[in-house]
Target: FAD-binding protein
Amino acid sequence: MITPEIKQQFISIVGSDWVKDSPNELYAYSYDATPMFQSLPDVVVMPATSGEVSALLRLANEHGIPVIPRGSGTNLAASTIPVQGGLVLQLHRMNRIHEIDTQNLTATVGPGVITADLHQAVEAYGLFYPPDPGSMRISTLGGNLSQCAGGMRGLKYGVTKDYVMGLEYVLPSGEIFRCGGKNVKDVAGYDMTRLLVGSEGTLAVITEITLKLLPLPETKRTLLAFFTSLVDAAKTVEQVIAAKIIPATMEFMDQGTMRVVDEYAKLGLPLEMKSMLLIEQDGPEELVSKDIASIAEIARANGAASVEVAATLEEGAKLLTARRSALSALSRIKPTTIMEDATVPRSRLADMVAEVERIADKYDLQICTFGHAGDGNLHPTCMTDERNKQEIERVEQAFAEIFAAAIALGGTITGEHGVGLAKLNYLPLKVGEGGIELMRRIKAAFDPNHIMNPGKIFAGSARRRMVVRR
Amino acid sequence: MITPEIKQQFISIVGSDWVKDSPNELYAYSYDATPMFQSLPDVVVMPATSGEVSALLRLANEHGIPVIPRGSGTNLAASTIPVQGGLVLQLHRMNRIHEIDTQNLTATVGPGVITADLHQAVEAYGLFYPPDPGSMRISTLGGNLSQCAGGMRGLKYGVTKDYVMGLEYVLPSGEIFRCGGKNVKDVAGYDMTRLLVGSEGTLAVITEITLKLLPLPETKRTLLAFFTSLVDAAKTVEQVIAAKIIPATMEFMDQGTMRVVDEYAKLGLPLEMKSMLLIEQDGPEELVSKDIASIAEIARANGAASVEVAATLEEGAKLLTARRSALSALSRIKPTTIMEDATVPRSRLADMVAEVERIADKYDLQICTFGHAGDGNLHPTCMTDERNKQEIERVEQAFAEIFAAAIALGGTITGEHGVGLAKLNYLPLKVGEGGIELMRRIKAAFDPNHIMNPGKIFAGSARRRMVVRR
Model:
């Protein structure tokens, strides 16, 4: 409960412009990009400095007010839904790129910096920040860290956690700490940096981020291959790796996704094909040419019905944009689009896609699958309508089976979206009840009063209140 | 206190051949590679399976017996000294390479596998495990994980933590858990994998490890450059990076180290030079040629008095072996050799080396410096004699100043050795007392009875007993 006195204290910390609690404003922060989850916060507060974050957290901690750190709310696991009400800590004002250090190849930024803005800023120096989640034009780096966002370059370049070198973070107690820094090697105590990345705002608030950068690859080239069978596409992926080639990007779309994307982006894709691979290699020109030629050969040897190489960088970018539009394109089909990210070891890709098809048939659902083939990170996406209660029940059952199938294949319930609210019932499949208990104890080490994003990751504490449906 | 009844229970778990408590045997496990630290354990037990580890831990936990997991004892932070006595859990029998998965590019191994044995095994498949700590021919992968070992390839390839994808681990309670796996992307809950790596055996016992592999680079080439000034060498390192070249290895030796290494390995180095860089690039032939030519040019432009490129792979390997022998060579000079690993952001390399020289002069000590220039990871190494109490006191003061200097330059107290006993007094410099308190609470989440490697990382609990000096 936020009393007028507490609200006054919030105002004295950040100023009255940055404390919002009108019904319209609360509504705007009641949902994120995850369909079918919504709950109103009690107040939205927008700090501009670590000091303000610290003062707000101390106050919230004292009064047992839930705190939900938030960037752009693009996450797909309902991780920023204020399921127990409380204070949405909206961090978009902390959006400065503090430094691009060209000697140590690092960037130091506020959590509110937009991912694509950082890309652009470092590319101006010939540098490269590889993580490129689908939402990168909207998402913030703070949000990327909270969820350990992935993207299309996971196989060759890794994901967000592989680029976080140092953090400033604030505990619920208000204490401001730093971990890591600009050192390539640093083993002074436990690796707090990696623990905070992917913790979904349940441990602390990240207020400054030092990221590792790479030299920008000299060039890149894009190849499309179309297959009459799913297995041939998966074999191509396997044999490219077996040939010791690690492409920057290896994206997969099934026939359903191809159709929808083609209609949306007017690409003239051969829609009679069962699946498509979009492969990109980057690096020095001579190497890129050699790798793309080898990949084309491998695709043909594995039954690709056609292989095209983009003639120019622009053409390559257009193809990649088409792949990036898959979710938007699919979203136009039906009122509700549920995108999941069941993930398997790369060698089980074909098995997993087949499982998704079998399960979609079994429950009579429209599920299209696309994703990051090189990572085994699939996005089975269900087009449905949340008003159709019967169908939604079948959707839930189907996804439960999809997650179980991923685990049976040595995979995981989430590759890059996170657990949040959307998957907390499935987490025991992956880490066991004992593993969850251990994580709860780690959370208590940071947040003994359980104010940080309560109800997320861990089941059993998700008491919902004031749910307003869209 | 280990009673005859408890000893009998150890024997019933692992068999009488694998429980050691004769004075000679206890003595052999009373020290590791860190000079001037020694303490006798009460018993040494050598399990062969996770089940045995689990049973041993449950028993130790019940009776409050300290447990010190141990591989080959090559660590340099006194992390495996049984400073409170107890049970040394010697893991060398868990030395099977369970699987090399050429499709998913992973290796799954027991913690007792020797690092160099894994290198050899995966290279037979054209694959590559980059971490190469100095002790790799003796050290175990379990030990590498416990300390988050580094090596010569940190800049381009990262360190141990960057290659750990999945673990099986045992809690003091005896519970056997798994985290991570073969998935390139996996965000199901907190990243336990990265938390356990570098935790120095204070949280749990690692019983199985899944490591990421890369394709083995096609070739490599080695370049030596000699400089009449330290600053020129540091500028060369900076400008190579500024030219967007990331070499596989960039090693630095000062004049003192060069002299000792040359005497040991008979290389005919130009000993009038003030410093030397050994740079190696790997990758496809055409790229390696281009990079090595660019690096040679940059070195010359920055005042290198001479630049040599190894004519053959064998010649390159010989030069690298010479660098690898630096510690052995330095160890021959005086009875006691103390190697440290103060680390700074790469751009502060020259400043840090100058600080080390200034501090060595101030305390009238012989300190040679070599290390991983690309990482800013330096190994100032003091040749001394532990019987000379007066000098040892000056050594302690000098290193305290060296660590403070590293921190002042934005660096850290340890880049790749760990905290252990040797540096626990310096940890507050890097993470603050509050940061240490947070780490203590995390430890308690794993190990509520404080049986796991007690006295390490955290100061104040290092009650010594039965110290036997060499």
